[in-house]
Amino acid sequence: xxxxxxxxxxxxxxxxTIVIRVxxxxxxxxxQPLMAAYAQAGEKTxxxxxxxxxxxxxxxxxxxxxxTLLVRANRQKQKLLACGLNDHYKQIFELTRLDEAIxxxxxxxxxxxxxxx
Length: 117
Hints:
Helix content is 37%, strand content 33%. By secondary structure, it is an alpha/beta fold.
């Protein structure tokens, strides 16, 4: 089994918003750190921003994890947003149609502003 090379940090912005900063590679081996960061959101959280500024690599297993995260967020009536994706990963989100469920923003500031709009 491959060791996870993903690190995450969850930063609470306010009672209803959390930012999960994803660093390194996102693969199937990333489930534990990604879901642990998501668990910090709690029930009152309405919006989760996934900051991919530090993303090095994502494969189909990582996309699968994002789908799992999306399902869990939808069950909790939480909105998922993404920021910091480079053009390659933006295209992957479009090809997989993840961009229809996870809104993409250029920066964390843009994502947080969109939540207030």
